[in-house]
Amino acid sequence: MKYLVLFGPPGSGKGTQSENIIKKYGYAHISTGDVLRAETANQTPLGVEAKKFMDAGQLVPDSLIIDMLAKTMDSYTDAKGIIFDGFPRTVAQAQALKEMLGKRGADVTVMINLQVDNDELIKRLLERGKTSGRSDDNLETIKKRLDTYNSQTAPVIDFYKEDGKLENIKGVGSIDDIFNAISKVIDAK
Ligand code: AMP
Domain limits of the chain? Predict the structure, then answer.
């Protein structure tokens, strides 16, 4: 089974490219953001707790996310591959994922890092906010999310670089061109 970490700042196209990967490769998809939004909509204890952080543009604490991920992953034992979308977002989460996969005798196959500059991200997130119903629909929350990304999430890139798994892909241009670059990386693994 292939384990693909689709990585990048908020607005870099992880959700869009996940859909393309699912269509072409039939992989299972775990988006921690989607799972959290479903928990919030159902007003579960996890959802109620998580919402406070999400609305403030902050990360949900590692312990909650790691438990949630372990449970979600257990339901995908037969998949051809799994896309992790929006996870890991901290080095502690990356370490936890390595341990979880290690217990299955597996490891992350590749980490695809979608690179997009800040101005473009802000433009895309403001546009998405008009229709998404997400809490990051205003400039203040968007800026907080980007700060959180730079301080807590970007260090995950070095974790995978040192682990020999990092593949950088330019996340600007046509969706098809970006997907072709992603496909080449997946096909090479
Ligand atoms: P996303 O849909 O991936 O943009 O995530 C939306 C929000 O959910 C983020 O701003 C965080 O508050 C929270 N979230 C999603 N994934 C994680 C994660 N792996 N670790 C911590 N918080 C997360």
Answer: 2-188
**Edge-to-edge strands of the sheet including 2-7?**
28-31, 81-85, 2-7, 110-115, 166-170
Closest alpha carbon to 138 in 128, 153, 147 = 128
Query: The pTM is what?
Result: 0.96
What architecture does CATH give domain 2-188? 3-Layer(aba) Sandwich (3.40)
Q: What's the mean pLDDT in 67-88?
A: 93
What is the tens place of the pLDDT at every residue in 127-156?
A: 998 888 887 789 999 999 999 999 999 999
Measured in angstroms, how far is the CA atom of residue 146 from the centroid of ligand 1?
A: 12
Q: What are 168's strand-pairing partners?
A: 113
Residue tagged active-site, from 2, 124, 128, 143: 128
- In ligand 1, the atom with minimum distance to the C-alpha of 145 is 10
